[in-house]
């Protein structure tokens, strides 16, 4: 065994061994959409005195962490996202009302002097109401009386701790004891001392305790307190006719600490545990069956080498899974889809290698016993550039998902990136080690037919016999593509786009009812209950979804009660709340991601190939995007974050196909720079059709399994990819290539230089397609 092969074998063994160890010993971190629970995203806002920067957000996070711990949720997770966002994950929590109330309240506790009553008393005496001074505030107390408050003399920062207790001696009910610290003790004594100077019964003898712009208590200072002396000792009680729950919640908020800056809930997602379990089971079935069908397909087509590639696919699964665990990445439902989808990427790399090996073997047939081993080695070497380029463009799309998407869709970008890298390791290292070991065996060398590369395949043989000139009518293909774009675009104009709550803001709740319900009946019941603008749709087989622009947690409980009246016992299986600001941001992010995706792909292809190739690939990508969006518009499918993930993945697939064609164009054109470009392009398409067909079929097996077995939540995702990959296969041959021919006809740039690593097959193909001259019977041989 050569030293390079030995190094690859040891590296492959080490990677697989580490992957097996991590898989056996470590459990994955499941997202809330797989294990059930609630996720709340809060955004910090500027206050009059504090800017909501990274430092203030970090302090807010620590306060929220204490509040979350006090909720008693098992294994909560809280982390900062960006400079001013905090993500709180609460596994198992199905009713987010208490958590949202506790986390969303700022607990801005302040103590104010009362300057007198406002409004009602002066109007009764016929006096003109005084205008509040600039620093005054007017708030109603717990009985509804409006009080004029002076500037805060004490804030929550002077509070040491707070505890709820009940007055068992007098039966006065629940109250909260507040212990003060540091400067808070002196400020409290001064504040109560000033109030004690007013006569009993005067509003000015009261002290207002304000929580989040609401007076929770405004007690009179006891007559025993002396003027200018106040209450000393650093302890006080807050009374206000509290129930036990209200007193404990208030003590929790005060003891947890006042937030340095206000926060706003901009996103809230709740997933029922049954939905998560069903999603895991459905995705696992789809992965197993899809992988088995794909493995069977490549074994039938490539025989022994296909079987070795199937073994490498199993290793790919181990490596991807272990990488997710090692990085501590959260596995989400779209992430599972990305994990399964990346199997298609691994198949693509193997198909590229085996098709190149077939070409090399056919070109070297009869050149000696080493031709089989040499063809396999050359297949890996010559396919490397196309594999690298296509995977890099997919990584660009996955990276854009990570930076511009949010929630579970971001997990799809992470999983897809890991899957792409693992597929390259699987195809270029593991498969190569296995293949080179196999073709070195005497039993295999003497029986080349078992390898699957000794014949060119039925598709290639049929094309060789027919020699079709596909680019003879390039403009006709462009007309067909343009007609398809117009037809799809008319769907956007006629039907419009149904944007999901991620892009519009609002709240979407999905319910599972005990008996089937008619959406119209639910819609009518909700209108009678005070929700006339609720959009009700069927979801899955027996479920129903309700979408409303604005809906509080209390109103959500009313909606569920209404649905229960119609459908019997009802279980909430999904709940998504997106604030309007976040919806605008996500919509902008989606457009930016698409724009950058097109620009980045064009720039990369222009650098790696030619600007004409890059522009042609971008035209094909735009063609695929418009058709896919138009199909979803005609079908009335939602345009949401999962669709965005599918769309960017389709862009990656579209570029993959274009890269393979243009890589072959560059190779053939470099081998014969005098050959007309349309001839070169046509030859490249004909030579790459077997790869396109086999890769497309391999991906279709995976996607069909996802569509049929992946559950309702993955059906639209798989449908988008099925449409996108089908359209992308067409556009790489009949849109991108004709556009490149038209652009090259107007370009003065010279043909590419001959490659220093030109393949034997490419040279043979160039000679075969070279225009014949000279006398009859001239073979074209030169000396």
Automatic annotation (TrEMBL):
The keyword Membrane applies. Keywords: Cell membrane, Membrane, Protein transport, Translocation, Transmembrane, Transmembrane helix, Transport. Residues 116-146, 745-783 are annotated as: Disordered. It is found in: Cell membrane. PANTHER family: PROTEIN TRANSLOCASE SUBUNIT SECD, PROTEIN-EXPORT MEMBRANE PROTEIN SEC. Residues 121-145, 767-783 have a biased composition (Basic and acidic residues). Belongs to the SecD/SecF family. SecF subfamily. Belongs to the SecD/SecF family. SecD subfamily. Residues 58-114 form the Protein translocase subunit SecDF P1 domain. The keyword Protein transport applies. This is Multifunctional fusion protein. Residues 139-261 form the SecDF P1 head subdomain domain. Part of the Sec protein translocase complex. Interacts with the SecYEG preprotein conducting channel. SecDF uses the proton motive force (PMF) to complete protein translocation after the ATP-dependent function of SecA. Forms a complex with SecD. Part of the essential Sec protein translocation apparatus which comprises SecA, SecYEG and auxiliary proteins SecDF. Other proteins may also be involved. Forms a complex with SecF. Part of the essential Sec protein translocation apparatus which comprises SecA, SecYEG and auxiliary proteins SecDF. Other proteins may also be involved. Its main location: membrane. It comes from the Bacteria. Residues 263-435, 559-744 form the Protein export membrane protein SecD/SecF C-terminal domain. Residues 755-766 have a biased composition (Low complexity). It is a multi-pass membrane protein. The chain crosses the membrane at residues 282-302, 309-329, 335-354, 383-405, 411-435, 477-497, 589-607, 614-635, 641-665, 693-711, 717-741.
